[in-house]
Amino acid sequence: MALPLDYMTLRVIWWALLGVLLIGFTLTDGFDLGVAALLPFVARNDNERRMTINTVGPTWEGNQVWLILGGGAIFAAWPFVYAVAFSGFYLAMFLVLAALILRPVGFKYRSKRPSKGWRAFWDWALFTGGFVPALVFGVAVGNVLSGAPFSFDSDLRIAYHGNLLGLFTPFTLVCGLLSVAMTTLHGAAWLTVKAEIGPVRDRARAFGDIAATGVIVLFAIGFLFVRFTGLGYRMVTAPDTSGPSNPLHTAIIPAPGAWLDNFAAYPWMWLAPALGVLGAVLAMTGLRRGWGAAALGGSAVSAIGVISTVGLSMFPILLPSSVDRHSGLTVWNASSSHTTLFNMLVATVIFLPIVLAYTSWVFKVLWGRSDTRTILASPDYY
Fold first, then answer.
1. CA-to-CA distance for 34 and 38, rounded, in angstroms?
2. For residues 19 and 141, what is the distance between their CA atoms, to the nearest angstrom?
3. Does residue 128 register a pLDDT over 60?
4. Euclidean distance between the first and the last CA atom of the chain, given in angstroms as a whole number
5. Is the pLDDT of residue 358 over 70?
6. What is the spatial distance between Cα 223 and Cα 306, in angstroms, rounded to a whole number?
7. Nearest Cα to 77, choosing from 345, 275, 256, 316?
8. How many domains are there within the chain?
9. How far apart are CA 149 and CA 41, in angstroms?
10. What is the pLDDT of residue 61?
11. Has residue 132 been placed in a domain?
12. Which residue in 43, 298, 337, 376 has the most C-beta neighbors within 10 A?
């Protein structure tokens, strides 16, 4: 039976949906990571730290749904990408997982004992659970742009030729620090909206101002890397947009500056990096003037712009190989079958609006500033 959407269209839709899920994770769990990374610096005593933690306490668990959805989408829609990324980047993924495990334990255990040493330990554990994932996620994106050292044999078995230390290069570290700056900015903007009026909010505004500057500077440095250091890949074979997935039928070669090709061909794409910079400027303005909504909206727009810039610059390439021109993965050669993509799209059309509606309802019900007096009066708060 013929399906309503052709194979090429479904592949493009799932490429876009992958971007939506990554943006959804950044906009929701991103401020959780940012608040955790800021915790030891914006809160100077136990009461301030408890108040800071409880700005994200009601929603942090639900926000992780976006991370699960993103991983599930890669597994189901882009199995080749999942296989390469989760095997080749295994040690980095393990590092992220270990750091993320510290978050729920830290949230739940931190205030169970009055000991200062006990609480200080979990405060730094929460910092680690916020800083490390943001850094490693950014480094991973940098490696996607740089090309990963993997290859397929004639039976499509994967061989990865790199190591953990090889993931960290000057460019990938810039990407990692940009990711940290983005989440820190988002966390600071969140505290501007959710923390009680007082020292924590004021410190968050100051750190957020630094983070906004970092986003702009690091984003510009990343652009200069792409423009002047030879980063980029280009597909040199005609794509079979409706054929079966097989990376061996595609040739992708290093091409200096090729990540800017799409922007030259489609000037409207420059809107994405413009949003990345202008959003950070808006967030900076909101933080300096105490406009919480502008700060949070600006940080969200900046994150959308930065992530979209990466996706648009690489399309249709998903993950190039730095060691084998016939192993690179694209939108056209790395997807699941036509039927699988269609059935998953039907499920997404049904369930994604439910997730969005429920998430919106939870944020509406639990909206309001976290204040020290309420927290101290109730043993149920973190």
1. 6
2. 13
3. yes
4. 55
5. yes
6. 11
7. 345
8. 1
9. 38
10. 81
11. yes
12. 298
